[in-house]
Amino acid sequence: MELKNKRVLVVGLGKSGLAAALFLRDRGARVTVSDTRSAAALGDSIPALLEAGIMVEAGGHGLLTFRRQDLIVVSPGVPLDTPEVKYAQQLGLTVIGELELASRFLEGEAVAITGSNGKTTTTTLIGQIFSDAGLRTQVGGNIGLPVIELIAESSPETWNVLEVSSFQLETTFEFRPKIALVLNITPDHLDRHKTFELYQAAKAKITANQGPNDYLILNAEDVAAQRLAAKTEAQIYWFSGGRRIKQGAFVHGESIFFVAQEGGKPEPVLPLGEITLKGAHNVENVLAAVCAARLAGVSAESIRATVATFRAVEHRLELVKTVAGVAFYNDSKATNVDATMKAVASFPRGIHLILGGKDKDSDYTQLGPLLEERVEAVYTIGSAAEKIERELAGVVKMVSAGTLDRAVADAAAVAKPGDVVLLAPACSSFDQFENYEHRGRAFREAVLQLKD
């Protein structure tokens, strides 16, 4: 992609948007950034951009700004149905995302991980397995560094392990990972994608450009993920925690096995007892990582050594502290109903569950049977509280806490030794917090202030 002297507009000045703008300017493009937030809200970003010779449009998008471009790069947080973006597409202008832009310049091979849940844990685990095995590895994308910031350190020998979201994938056109993983596809972000079908279509773009020499790793127990098998030219590997499969990773007895090709002999990789992560969903994440690592040439022995020492990623079923015999777990990354169900299923009973935040057009009634079986009380917070209380009325005791601090205090006051206080909110964080990390840190601070 030739960028020198091209007029390029970056829409959305989040972390990836800022990185894209600076990268484009370094490549000789004439860059403008546009954001609906005010100049005051954008803070220190504006002086840095102006110093780099980048024009800044704050407080809204101007149609003329969009019309005057050769290329438009949209940040993941900017919906494609934004009127100005639709206008640019109608004019025939090229509109891509930061992931697509970065992929044109990134050297080495890409391992791309997507799914409604488990992406961050699996991405981090794969990166650690690769690194421990001596492979030159970078990890980024939807976690850590934006993909565009990985370009400078990439080389033909690099494995780029990337968490990719539906928001990032929907603006890709040539992105082609060597190894693609789809962990699961359950309803999420319907406030953005409008329908489950459109959400699935965005996820499917992870394999759209793969060929016969590439690999697609799919969850054999997830119906929506299974459908991608008919939409790819890549070699398909499966993973399953419930049954033996012909090609991929599976659980048999108390161990994980890998089969390199149909008809091949199952290779023992590691005992289940050596997985330190809680929950059956994390066994699936390990199975997916086993597939990716073996396809990249990492030995079973090396995989086993890394998995045995791998600990929960921050904000993902992370044990914060045990206070007076009550364990407090931070799963702030559980931003949809399915993730919350997996978190609740990780504990047998005695759960005090904190739910709420910004609703994503979710159906909370799905939580009913599991809450009735395992949860002592639900403490609601945020703008979704009223909807959650209405949809789960009569299922379990409800406490309208309003704020996260109050929910922690209320739960701590009644929880008994052996109980669990679990933040697994089933909502995004954007009503009361900057992001799920901010929410998780606030939960941790509230717990650490409790007295034994």
- Tell me the name of the CATH class of the largest domain: Alpha Beta
The figure for the number of domains is 3
Secondary structure category: alpha/beta
Largest sheet: 9 strands, mixed
Mean pLDDT: 94
CATH topology of the largest domain: UDP-N-acetylmuramoyl-L-alanine:D-glutamate ligase
Question: Largest beta sheet: what is the strand line-up?
Answer: 7-8-6-9-10-11-12-13-14
* Rg (CA only): 23 Å
- Could you say which overall geometry the principal axes of the C-alpha atoms support? globular
In DSSP terms (H or I, runs of 4 or more residues), the helix count works out at 18
CATH architecture heading of the largest domain: 3-Layer(aba) Sandwich
Poorly predicted regions: none
Q: Calculate the terminal CA-CA distance, rounded to whole Å.
A: 60 Å
Strand fraction band?
A: 15-25%
Kindly state the percentage of residues in helix: 25-40%
Task: Let me know the number of strands.
Answer: 20
The CATH superfamily of the largest domain is identified as Mur-like, catalytic domain
Structure description:
The protein is α/β, with parallel strands linked by helices. It folds into 3 domains: 91 residues, Rossmann fold, CATH 3.40.50.720; 204 residues, UDP-N-acetylmuramoyl-L-alanine:D-glutamate ligase (3-Layer(aba) Sandwich); 131 residues, Protein-Tyrosine Phosphatase, Chain A (Alpha-Beta Complex). The protein has 18 helices and 20 strands. A 9-stranded mixed beta sheet has the order 7-8-6-9-10-11-12-13-14. Helix 7 packs across helix 13. The radius of gyration is 23 Å and the shape is globular.
